[in-house]
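Q: What does the assembled structure look like for these inputs?
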Amino acid sequence: MHKEKMQIKNEKIAIPNLQKIFEATFKLSNTHGFQGMSLRDLSKETGISMGGLYSYIGSKNDLASVIEGVQRKYIEQVLDGILKEKLAPKESLRAIIFSEIYMMEIMSSWYYFCFMELKGLSKEQQNFALDNELRGEEIIMGIIKDGIEAKQFICEHPELLASQVVAQLQQWHLKQWKFKLRGVNTEEYASYVYSSLLTCLSAEIN
Amino acid sequence: MHKEKMQIKNEKIAIPNLQKIFEATFKLSNTHGFQGMSLRDLSKETGISMGGLYSYIGSKNDLASVIEGVQRKYIEQVLDGILKEKLAPKESLRAIIFSEIYMMEIMSSWYYFCFMELKGLSKEQQNFALDNELRGEEIIMGIIKDGIEAKQFICEHPELLASQVVAQLQQWHLKQWKFKLRGVNTEEYASYVYSSLLTCLSAEIN
DNA sequence: GTCTATAGTGCGATAGAC
DNA sequence: GTCTATCGCACTATAGAC
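A:
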């Protein structure tokens, strides 16, 4: 995705270095914040010189922007994949919850970075992110409403229940330290979010 | 609280100016992040000169630190007030949810700032904040367990249900833009969080 | 109690050797 | 493709006039 913007043309060199840059950015941003991280820090952490960094990124802000772009594209692909399957309401909710949580597991640093550093991005990218959050919530709300019409669910406030699920999903990347401390694993958490949702929908848990 | 550290001794001058400084900090941090905000920005926003600012704060980092300290003290006072009342499990949960949400309503900028800028604070303050989150969750979990023992509640995973409530509470300051957009008011949201919790506890809603 | 002026530092970014 | 050296700037913080 980032190919065309890069000065380094040899992929065998470019890809491992880009990976190093992303990982170091996540690490340093998690301790100092992206604005608090200097390119000198990043240079030390990656082992790439200041000058060298600039053949991989256009500018410091460009680096944050690229990370957000890659993350957004990935999520869109996965979500669209699920929606294409046209599952029944219950299975659809299950698929969304489990895939989002497993996705966060794999890309947890990306999620966390994008959430915490959203402010530093361009207005355009901020709007994309907010729209994405609304869209995610509306998809869940839509499925709940479909289930209500099909007499499978009972729920007074579908919009608030949807936001409850979104809140629980986000906790999985925002508060990983807490779940690790409590010894809750990915599978357990996803199962809980799903069963709690079914309880609030007055639906039977299989 | 911040009195002893300040150079300005006349309260009638100091308090309004400190207020201006806090509000401007919240505003600028919400758009650029605290690290991204310069004291020149803060000087322009408050109308106080660079030199003037330094008679109110010890340093830039000190400003963030003071904000976190004030916020923490406030929350502790309110929580302790509720726990002293020794209410029945249901009423206790209700009191915690409603007071926390109304508190966030009043001090929303403070909550948001402390959440987003936690990284920039000293290790000591970070630990305080994390402990506070754990403590808040444990209080809720404890009340749920009390209610289970008293045969008032049924719940398989008290610790996950407690984290669900904490997640929902945090959304109220993290995502205020969303609730405003959806036209959800404070009272409605607090009621929903409470009734959703009772549903998950298989308890009757009065 | 508030200001302007400025010291001193560390930043993002680039040029050009290798 | 990677490095070192360096430019110019914006930052935090302070000194001292008013």
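Residues 124 and 130 of chain B are 10 Å apart (CA to CA).
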